[in-house]
């Protein structure tokens, strides 16, 4: 079955430790750049997390989707907003995204929305 | 291990309920359009399901592949036909589709073919 | 060389006429759904166009990128905002998006930004 | 502007000569396998060409789409059939396929359909 | 949780048996071509396995990545080399590859590197 | 027709100037990281350029392919090596990569190989 948000976050952390054990400067700088891109700027963090979510949906990466769903929840995105953002991803990316849309909304639901 | 066809169908149904709980008009209309596209028309349903199967194989979506494998079985596609259709997907999409081809034929086998 | 925004829009219109000449109900309903998804709602049109832009960048579709660049310009997105949105697309989608990023900013520049 | 079918076929032939000038056994065997996959078998050539067309549409390769559009025309696929096949590709692959759908129907139109 | 290398290899073997039970000449020839492409030639096997690994990372196929990680280990690729190869995949393919990078390095670690 | 290597390099330079005119720190750091990843290290530059080439082929980005073809030429990769590397990309990525393989070998040929 689908992993819970807690299981997902724990596994993610454990695997990131393995990455950091082996990472060279290129990988470390990429991780740092990845954090920087989502920082509050001309666009609010909330918008940036929705951009990351829709990009992850159309590229169909479950782990990336779940991560941004959690971050959108932390940034107080509303259910109406998340559904509209996911709807754009669905229309752009097509029915092939539906299995990921299902798991995105399952995680959103699990977070109490 | 690989999910059985029954487990897959049950999970799919449960998650679709969560989608419908939150869905707006865009998502609902997309679901409706998705059903419409596969309806018997100038092309028979059987051909349309094979089109959906090959599209899902080259885009490498296991859930979509399994769904169309089940539908092809219901539409009485033969093993020779399914293997030729999957072969086109393999040649178009390359060796990166092989793990999905394996799971496609595992599901096909499980359905008694 | 790169097409101008005017050449792009004219060609797009001409080809859409050919689509509509042949389109069946499925294709027509998809076009209608595609318009609906970007309409002002819980999220403002401006945010939706940026979501469409980033989705198009990570999927690396030049025509889709140019279309959303034009729409973002119409919605008065600022250069700082467009650059931050494209930066998220670049980090998510990697260096493979750079040729599309170049053409995105070329079109943005051409629009007088 | 869009290349004509004749220009496309001529360029394709010229470039294939360059491929064959340099190709090793792996590339030659791949080309041969690519031809074999579309040969009449349990599925008719016509169905196989539509499978190749839809796979090419969802993977968004203009050259591959144009090639299969020409082959579908040679196999006497009707406009109603081609439109339904493309409609499945559009629904599976999403709005990101629309620029390719436009060019597919432009080529179909040019072939006198 | 993540499958062990042993579990992965066993499941892969079992599913390949199902493929071979149903495979036609196209699929069998593809499998044979897939083996041939990685054979020692102008490029050493070690380089070819790294090419397969990076191609698998940017296409985000966990099974393909794990297979090439195992083969790179057999070909005595060093940790410094694997990390630099994965770093190129990360930069080319973007943050969307990070979940696969994590699992790649987890498998590399599990192999005693 | 296909752009010459000289036309390609000139256009690339002009568009990069537009990127740098608008780029923020995220985009600038990405460009810098992109250069760093290909620097001589545990793996020689020559191998790294082939990794970039194959990644670009399977992701089907003509501009990226042409760039790495030029770089491979500068690093004195032989025709036998380039053909084997491209062959791996073709097998991994499938027939959908063939139009890009054609243009890759056309550029390789143009460079006097």
Which properties best describe this structure?
113 residues, globular, mainly alpha, 6 helices, homohexamer
Structure notes:
The structure is a homohexamer of 113-residue chains. The first copy, chain A, has 113 residues and is mostly helical. The first copy, chain A, contains six helices and no strands. Chain A has helices at residues 5-22, 25-37, 45-59, 62-74, 79-93, 98-110. The mean pLDDT of chain A is 97.
Condensed summary:
Chain A has 113 residues and is mainly alpha-helical. Chain A has helices spanning 5-22, 25-37, 45-59, 62-74, 79-93, 98-110. Chain A starts with a helix and ends with a helix.
Please state the structural category of chain A.
mainly alpha
Number of strands of chain A: 0
Bin the strand percentage of chain A: under 5%
The shape of chain A is globular
Largest sheet of chain A: none
How many distinct helices of chain A? 6
* Quaternary structure state of the chains depicted: homohexamer
Order of helices and strands of chain A: HHHHHH
Share in helix of chain A: over 70%
Q: Main interface pair?
A: A-C, 31 and 31 residues
Average pLDDT level of chain A: 97
Radius of gyration of chain A, whole Å: 15 Å
Low-pLDDT residue spans of chain A: none
Termini gap of chain A: 21 Å
């Amino acid at each position: 079955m689908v992993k819970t948000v807690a299981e997902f976050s724990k596994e993610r952390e454990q695997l990131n430790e393995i990455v950091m054990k082996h990472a060279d400067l290129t990988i470390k700088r990429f991780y740092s750049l990845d954090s920087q891109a989502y920082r509050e700027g001309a666009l609010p963090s909330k918008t940036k997390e929705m951009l990351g979510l829709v990009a992850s949906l159309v590229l169909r990466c479950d782990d990336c989707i779940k991560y941004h769903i959690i971050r959108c929840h932390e940034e107080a995105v509303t259910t109406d907003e998340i559904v509209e953002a996911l709807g754009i991803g669905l229309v752009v990316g097509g029915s092939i995204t539906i299995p990921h849309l299902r798991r995105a909304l399952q995680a959103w639901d699990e977070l109490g929305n």
